[in-house]
Amino acid sequence: MKKLAIMFASLLMAVTANAQFERGKVYCGASLSGLNLSYSGSSELNLGVQGKVGYLFADNWMGLGSVDYQHTGKEGVKDYVSVGVQGRYYIIQNGLYLGAGAKLTHTGSYNDVMPGVEVGYAFFVSRTVTIEPAIYYDQSFKNHSDYSTVGFRVGVGVYL
Predict the structure, then answer these.
(1) Which pLDDT tens digit goes with each residue over 86-113?
(2) Collapsing DSSP states into helix, strand and coil, what is residue 98?
(3) 134-158, pLDDT tens digit by residue?
(4) Which of 34, 39, 104, 122 could, after both became Cys, cross-link 46 (CB 3.0–4.6 A)?
(5) With contact defined as beta carbons under 8 Å apart, do 101 and 81 qualify?
(6) Secondary structure, 3-state, 106-159
(7) Secondary structure letter of residue 40 according to DSSP
(8) How far apart are CA 128 and CA 19, in angstroms?
(9) Contact 70, 80 (CB under 8 A)
(10) Is the dihedral of CA 13, 134, 29, 115 positive or negative?
């Protein structure tokens, strides 16, 4: 009986998630990255806040725009602000996704274009609200060893 209940709950979660990745849905999200969970050669403490807005232009395909603020704790390295675009594809109907995009990063001392990739999971806590853990990699064209970043972020998303 217990196995049947778990299987039924899993099926309901998959059906609920499927309805959220349909064409025409709007997405709003915010995430927190860092807390020493990301690594780059030029920083010790790395804490970031990100906001995203997206639109599902086809089933399972989303276009996103983002704004980022990143604080690094190392002396001599400035905080940065970035704006970017990203595409996201939901691989399977339970929320696993792949993302790829690029962002323009600005500090007082340099500008950089950083393409990146991301793998994440949209875990639905209600019909429209998700918790979205993701692993990401941003490649720096300015200075690979100091500014390229591998990290973990946790976000909250709303699918309308």
Answers:
(1) 999 998 777 899 999 999 988 877 888 9
(2) strand
(3) 999 989 887 777 778 888 889 999 9
(4) 34
(5) no
(6) ECCCCEEEEEEEEEEECEECCCCEEEEEEEEEECCCCCHHHHCEEEEEEEEEEE
(7) -
(8) 10
(9) yes
(10) negative
Partners of 115 in beta bridges: 102
- Is 64 exposed, middle or buried, given 0-12, 13-18 or 19+ CB atoms closer than 10 A? middle
DSSP run (H or E) holding 16? helix 2-20
List residues bridging with 132 in a β-sheet: 155
Residue 100, token pair as written in the block: 């790829």
| 10/1 Cα distance (integer angstroms) | 14
Question: Cα(67)–Cα(49) distance, rounded to whole angstroms?
Answer: 9
Handedness of CA 106, 140, 49, 27 (dihedral sign): positive
Distance CA 63, CA 110 (A): 27
